[in-house]
Amino acid sequence: MKKSILLIVLSNLLFSDNLTIYNSNFANINSIKEFNVTDGINQLEFPNFPDTIITDSIVANFSDNIRLLEQNFVSNRTDMLNLLNLNLNSDIKFFADKSREKLKSGKLINIDPITIMCDDGYYILEDAEDIIYKNYPKNFSKTAIEWKLNAKSSQKETLELNYLAKGYNWSTNYVLTLNDKSLNLKAFATITNGSGKDFKDANITLFAGKVNAPIRENRINRVKSVKKRVLKAVSYSEDAPVMLESIEAKSISNYYKYDIPFSVTLLDGASKQINIIDAKNIKYNTYALASSNNFRNYGKQKLHFNKHIEFVNKKDNALGIAMPKGIIRVYKDTNYLGENSISNTPNKEKVDIAIGQMFDVVGTKSITKYVVKDYYRSVQTKYELRNRGKESATIKIREQVPRYGDNIKFSSNCKGECSKKDESAFVRVYTIKLKPKSSYKFNSSFEIN
């Protein structure tokens, strides 16, 4: 006697959703769901996948009680617009408030915008998912996957599903606040979801590091929803049950990941910001830097000094967490001072950013000697520096000589408040500490045979 097939449809109320989001426009998604099977052939359907799923990345793990016979993909049998059309001019129920606790009854009289006529007036809805529909088409589904299973015995089973999907991304924005002797640093991870699927109360992990992203095109065409959701920025709530200090960067195969220690609702078309770093009292230094690499002309050249802020990413500075790449915006006393980007910065490494051109630090450079012969060059440079401000300033000149010749000799009269450090065979950095309203002059020369 032939056994009938039991159709099991896994609802959206998953046992758990775990998303690892990469900053390369994709995510690795792990979902776990419990279901019951009967002895024999069972048909299992998992609806409402992301529209951007990479279908050949799906890995479904079943117990030894189950043998997987077939795996089929179902793509958007109908969309929300068809569902609305099917219920047009019908009596429906809908959620009248954002808490989704209060139900009202009315008649759907228009689709765009979604308009419902009630006894007390007309309601305009932004989201078609706020409606409880009376009429429902057969085989309605968004992107779905179906399995044909052969079960040895009837029992409760657990499906662990793993797959990749595009349309997810995250980036880091830093807010750096300068105090007189220390700085405070906050980092916000901005997560975006453009996959076509909502995730509610999901476990989120942010993955930092450059990995080779999925290169195959998605095989499933995305169907546009009735209305595009407005891009929203949702800030981390202060009354969340877990403190921010519990977020740590964990090393994994020379990458880093950040486990968000509370469940996150990530809606399709939305953007959410989560505070992942909150460090205070970090020691820092500032200096003015000018580059000097032109040694061909006599006469004076004006030096342009950029203000730099540097600090070390270490626990002694109340930081000591692997810092993902991002934009750092600098403030002091609510005044915006500038911004720059940083690359992925591990623990105990220096962070050095230039935020803008100095106003009170000025200087000139003059080529006072320029001798060029076959296989020989001798150049002498005079630097004149001035600090017109009311505060002491650390000034650096990064001097890079031309890369030719085999025998190079350097000399300078840098002394006192001036010091010199060789950065490489061709680069020297002069550091001058100037008091307010003071100036300094020195010469530098090189000879190449």
What would a concise description of this structure say?
By secondary structure, this protein is an all-beta fold. It has 1 helix and 34 strands. The strands form 6 sheets. Strands 2, 3, 5, 13, 16, 18, 19 and 20 form an 8-stranded mixed β-sheet that branches.
What keywords describe this structure?
single chain, 449 residues, mainly beta, Immunoglobulin-like, eight-stranded mixed sheet, six-stranded mixed sheet, 34 strands
Could you describe the 3D structure shown?
The protein is an all-beta fold. It contains one helix and 34 strands. It folds into four domains: 6-77 and 140-166, Sandwich (Immunoglobulin-like), CATH 2.60.40; 80-132; 168-282, no CATH class; 285-306 and 350-448, Sandwich (Immunoglobulin-like). The strands form six sheets. Strands 2, 3, 5, 13, 16, 18, 19 and 20 form an eight-stranded mixed beta sheet that branches. Strands 17-21-15-14-25-26 form a six-stranded mixed beta sheet, with no helix packed on it. The protein has a six-stranded mixed beta sheet with strand order 27-24-22-30-33-32, with no helix packed on it.
